[in-house]
Specification:
462 residues; Serine Threonine Protein Phosphatase 5, Tetratricopeptide repeat
C-alpha cells in the first residue's frame, strides 16, 4: 500500500450511468456454450445460460412455465421480460401484459410492463414510471417496485422525485446494499452530498461487485473532486508543481510553485494538501501537519486530507491519532482503500478482530487483487479460528500466482494449525495431508526454509 498518494490533475469525472437493467442479479450458476462445462440443471440457471448465449427463444420456453408456476416471483418475472425483449417481442409482450391488466390487474404485471416500456426509448419516461407507480399502489411494501420506480425517475433526470422511492426501497430491503448506488446519485444531484457519501459507505460495507465499486468510485469522484472549481489561471503553475513533486522528486521546487499559487488563492484546500505532501517528502512533519490541517479547515468534507494526516501520524508512531484520522477519512470518502487498510492494521494491533475484519473486508472489496489486503484478512480469519475463510483468501492469491511461496507457506501453516487444534480425527487427518502438500511445495522452491521444515516436522511428530 502506498504511504504518500500522488495527486494528478484531471477533469471532472462523470459518473457511470446507472441504467435500469432488466436483471438486478444473476439467477445462480450459469455456463457458456463455448466453455465446454456441463449445462446447469436447475431451470432458472438454464434460462440465464441461454440468455447469456443469446438464445432468448430457448430461455422463453423455460421462463414461461416458471412464471405460470410462480407468478409472483419477481426474479422470474424480470428474467422473462428480459427474454421477451431480447427475442424481439417487446411490442407483443407489452400488448399481452396490457391485456392481462385489463382483465385482472396484478402488481407483477404492472412491474413487467414497466420493465418492458423502459426498454423502449419513447416509453422509458412517463409510461414506464406510471406502470411502476401503479405496481406500488397495488403492492406498497414490495421493495423491488420502489427501486425500479426510483431508477426510472433517475434515468429520466427527475432527481428529486427519485429520492423518496429509492430511500423506501433501501428501507424495505436493507440487505440490497447495491441499491444505494442510484440513491447516492440522486442525493448528490439534489445537493445532499453528505447523504450521498453515507449511501456509498453502505455500498462498500456490503461486499460490492467490481462493477458496483467502479460505479461507486465514479460517483465519489463527482461528490468529492479536490480540483473542482480550480482557477484556470493557476493550472499551469499547478501542473509545474505536480511535475516537480510526482515525476522529478523535487519537493523543494514543488513547494515554491504551490506557494506561488497560494499567494493569489490562499484558501485552495488542494494546494495545502500538496504542500503537506511535499513537506512530508522532506521529512518536515511539523510543517506537513500544519498544511494538512489547513486543508481540512478549508475543505472539511474531503476525506483524502484526513488520510494524508493519518499516514503522517502513523509514520510518527501516533496510533491513536492515526486511527481517528483514518476513521474520519473513510466516513467522508468510503472509497479510500488505503485508509481502510491502515485502519485494519491499527485495529489488528489492538487485537480488535471484529473491527479489523470489517476494515480489511472493505479493503479487499475495493481492491480484490491486493495481496497485502488479502493476506491481512486471512490472518484475521485465522486468529478467529475461521479456517475455511482464511483458506479462501490465501487460495485466491496462490490460484492467481502459483509461484507465490509466501502464501503457499501460509496455507501450509494454516492447515498445520488446523490439524493440531482439531479434536475430530478425520479433520486432523485431512488438514495434515493438505499441510504436508503445501509445506513440501515450499521446500521444493526454498529447501532452506526453516519455518516450513519445522512445521513439517511437527506434523510428523503428532
Amino acid at each position: 500500500m502506498t504511504t504518500t498518494p500522488a495527486f494528478r490533475f484531471r477533469p471532472w469525472a462523470r459518473a457511470a450511468v446507472l441504467g435500469l437493467g432488466l436483471l438486478a442479479a444473476g439467477c445462480g450458476h450459469t455456463t457458456s456454450a463455448t466453455t465446454g462445462a456441463p449445462r446447469p440443471t436447475d431451470e432458472r440457471s438454464r434460462a440465464r445460460a441461454y440468455l447469456e448465449e443469446n438464445q432468448p427463444q430457448k430461455a422463453l420456453g423455460i421462463l414461461k412455465e416458471l412464471h405460470v408456476r410462480t407468478p409472483e416471483d419477481l426474479d422470474v418475472a424480470r428474467t422473462l421480460t428480459e427474454a421477451q425483449v431480447k427475442a424481439g417481442r417487446t411490442d407483443a409482450w407489452i400488448e399481452e401484459l396490457q391485456g392481462r391488466i385489463a382483465t385482472s390487474e396484478r402488481a407483477v404485471d404492472q412491474y413487467m410492463l414497466g420493465l418492458a416500456l423502459f426498454s423502449r426509448a419513447k416509453d422509458a419516461g412517463a409510461p414506464a414510471v406510471a406502470a411502476f407507480e401503479r405496481a406500488i399502489t397495488l403492492s406498497p411494501d414490495t421493495a423491488e417496485y420502489h427501486h425500479r420506480l426510483g431508477v426510472a425517475r433517475l434515468e429520466s433526470e427527475q432527481y428529486a422525485a427519485a429520492v423518496e422511492p429509492l430511500r423506501r426501497a433501501a428501507a424495505l430491503a436493507p440487505e440490497r446494499t447495491a441499491w444505494r448506488l442510484p440513491l447516492a446519485k440522486a442525493l448528490h444531484r439534489t445537493g445532499d452530498s453528505a447523504g450521498a457519501v453515507e449511501a456509498l459507505g453502505v455500498v462498500v460495507r456490503g461486499r460490492p461487485t467490481p462493477a458496483d465499486v467502479a460505479t461507486a468510485r465514479a460517483l465519489m469522484e463527482q461528490v468529492s473532486d479536490p480540483f473542482g472549481g480550480f482557477p484556470k489561471a493557476a493550472e499551469a503553475k499547478l501542473e509545474e508543481g505536480l511535475r516537480y513533486l510526482n515525476d522529478l522528486d523535487a519537493p523543494q521546487h514543488a513547494i515554491l510553485a504551490f506557494e506561488e499559487v497560494l499567494h493569489d488563492y490562499p484558501d485552495l484546500a488542494v494546494l495545502h494538501s500538496l504542500l503537506g505532501l511535499a513537506y512530508q517528502r522532506l521529512d518536515d512533519a511539523g510543517r506537513a501537519v500544519d498544511e494538512f490541517k489547513q486543508a481540512i479547515e478549508s475543505a472539511p468534507r474531503d476525506g483524502k486530507n484526513h488520510l494524508y494526516l493519518g499516514e503522517l501520524y502513523a509514520s510518527r508512531q501516533r496510533p491513536d491519532a492515526a486511527r481517528a484520522s483514518f476513521e474520519k477519512a473513510v466516513s467522508l470518502h468510503p472509497l479510500l482503500d488505503a485508509a481502510w487498510f491502515r485502519l485494519g492494521d491499527l485495529h489488528l494491533e489492538r487485537r480488535d478482530l471484529v473491527a479489523a475484519r470489517e476494515a480489511f473486508t472493505v479493503a479487499v472489496s475495493l481492491s480484490p487483487d491486493s495481496i497485502p489486503a488479502r493476506g491481512k484478512l486471512a490472518l484475521v480469519y485465522q486468529l478467529e479460528a475461521d479456517y475455511p475463510a482464511a483458506e479462501r483468501e490465501l487460495r485466491y492469491v496462490v490460484e492467481k500466482d502459483p509461484e507465490n511461496v509466501e502464501f503457499s507457506l501460509r496455507l501450509g501453516l494454516l492447515f498445520t494449525e488446523q490439524s493440531m487444534k482439531s479434536t475430530r480425527p478425520q479433520v486432523r487427518k485431512s488438514a495434515a495431508e493438505e499441510a504436508e502438500r503445501w509445506l513440501s511445495k515450499v521446500l521444493e522452491a526454498q529447501p532452506e526454509n526453516a519455518v516450513a521444515s519445522r512445521a513439517l516436522q511437527s506434523l510428523k511428530g503428532q
